[in-house]
Amino acid sequence: MPRYKAVISYDGTNYAGFQVQNNAHTIQEAIEKTLKRLNGGKPITIHPSGRTDSGVHAKGQVIHFDYPHKREAEKFRFALDTQTPDDICFLSVEEVEETFHARYLAKEKIYHYHLDIGHTRDPFKRLYSAHYRYDLDLGIMRQAAKDIEGEHDFSVFCATGSSVEDKTRNVYEVIIEEVSETELRFIFRGNGFLYKMVRMLVGTLLKIGNGQLPVDAIKIALENQDKKMTGPTAHPEGLFLMNVSYD
Amino acid sequence: MPRYKAVISYDGTNYAGFQVQNNAHTIQEAIEKTLKRLNGGKPITIHPSGRTDSGVHAKGQVIHFDYPHKREAEKFRFALDTQTPDDICFLSVEEVEETFHARYLAKEKIYHYHLDIGHTRDPFKRLYSAHYRYDLDLGIMRQAAKDIEGEHDFSVFCATGSSVEDKTRNVYEVIIEEVSETELRFIFRGNGFLYKMVRMLVGTLLKIGNGQLPVDAIKIALENQDKKMTGPTAHPEGLFLMNVSYD
């Protein structure tokens, strides 16, 4: 059966996350419903590079699925793009080898986290960034961000509820950019991220930047798996899965 | 009684426009509800520079209202900003003379209209721009836009349902900007605009740019009040009231 890879973008505001669950709308449900209709009523299961949580967005999520018919890629993309809801977009669709797997073969992921640091909250950013109204020392945050980089056991930055056994991940780069006077962008690039890891790292960086945790809090948290050296989980609406790379 | 002027910004997505009406949430209702609560349960009426329609946004709407108590401006702004819903923001509040009037004294208004011209619709722009997927000749549109500028009777670009008698307006400037490869921004600056006038002008410019109306359609429409030379009313979600000026 032909296997297809698709790159999708979605506004997570109105969804209870990616993965199918009872009594809640999810991205997976919306896409599988469309695929089922295109496939004459027979169900198709999709597999993402990883789940995203309720309210989290994606500009470059990757999924794969097996579909019993050969379809011309651009026509297939157009049908999926126009027949899924307006807040889900199919950027590309291509036929791939049967061995392709969106999750197992992912080599690198990039996440962005948007923070609105304006004095008054911008109504047009409220769904796409978290608001933070307190003082932040960017120099200290950038120094602390260096401690995230490299290969570490990130168990202390993994929310309960994860079934993953090996919690070692390699974070290649953490960048904190000043997009404008009222907006910060955190960029995380690594071989993978644990359940809520990016949001827990952002929450910790904010607590460090505001002086409520020492600059070496992340270093200590990782070395001693010390929860007291971590901050709260930052709000979901600031988080975007930007890109997933494969060999 | 002290009179206050406020500059507000709002995401119109979840409102049935500015003006209070039965059985629908409006911007006016949300703000007046907050003012009533701050005023110990006694109602306060607000007056905008002009109404905005269902789904239309504002980044610089101006309102005025009379409030029986003297309030320190920044504290009053903060109270209104935090107690109104998240999609309404108070950018500034100041006490003004009793003769100030947000509508009668407005000298100039600026509207922006955002158009998403990407091949695939961007989920993150869907609430804040209209999507147009057909060819557009920008050169021809810019030439046609010149015919809007100046003092004209704009009756043919006014939707039915308006109670305004004098339909002469002076449009100082119409600019069409390429914000990026996938986004256009139309800027309208004038002494005032009729009911749905900006959206009807955008709809007409799009029809001209797509070759469905001649380049001089607006000129003919204005000279002969000829409805056949106008396009449809463009969707509300692309429209932003950006600024209102006073002497």
UniProtKB/TrEMBL annotation, chains A, B:
<comment type="similarity">
    <text>Belongs to the tRNA pseudouridine synthase TruA family.</text>
</comment>
<dbReference type="GO" id="GO:0003723">
    <property type="term" value="F:RNA binding"/>
</dbReference>
<comment type="subunit">
    <text>Homodimer.</text>
</comment>
<dbReference type="InterPro" id="IPR001406">
    <property type="entry name" value="PsdUridine_synth_TruA"/>
</dbReference>
<dbReference type="GO" id="GO:0160147">
    <property type="term" value="F:tRNA pseudouridine(38-40) synthase activity"/>
</dbReference>
<protein>
    <recommendedName>
        <fullName>tRNA pseudouridine synthase A</fullName>
        <ecNumber>5.4.99.12</ecNumber>
    </recommendedName>
</protein>
<dbReference type="GO" id="GO:0031119">
    <property type="term" value="P:tRNA pseudouridine synthesis"/>
</dbReference>
<dbReference type="InterPro" id="IPR020103">
    <property type="entry name" value="PsdUridine_synth_cat_dom_sf"/>
</dbReference>
<dbReference type="InterPro" id="IPR020097">
    <property type="entry name" value="PsdUridine_synth_TruA_a/b_dom"/>
</dbReference>
<feature type="domain" description="Pseudouridine synthase I TruA alpha/beta">
    <location>
        <begin position="144"/>
        <end position="247"/>
    </location>
</feature>
<dbReference type="InterPro" id="IPR020095">
    <property type="entry name" value="PsdUridine_synth_TruA_C"/>
</dbReference>
<keyword id="KW-0819">tRNA processing</keyword>
<dbReference type="Pfam" id="PF01416">
    <property type="entry name" value="PseudoU_synth_1"/>
</dbReference>
<feature type="binding site">
    <location>
        <position position="111"/>
    </location>
    <ligand>
        <name>substrate</name>
    </ligand>
</feature>
<comment type="function">
    <text>Formation of pseudouridine at positions 38, 39 and 40 in the anticodon stem and loop of transfer RNAs.</text>
</comment>
<dbReference type="InterPro" id="IPR020094">
    <property type="entry name" value="TruA/RsuA/RluB/E/F_N"/>
</dbReference>
<keyword id="KW-0413">Isomerase</keyword>
<feature type="domain" description="Pseudouridine synthase I TruA alpha/beta">
    <location>
        <begin position="6"/>
        <end position="104"/>
    </location>
</feature>
<feature type="active site" description="Nucleophile">
    <location>
        <position position="53"/>
    </location>
</feature>
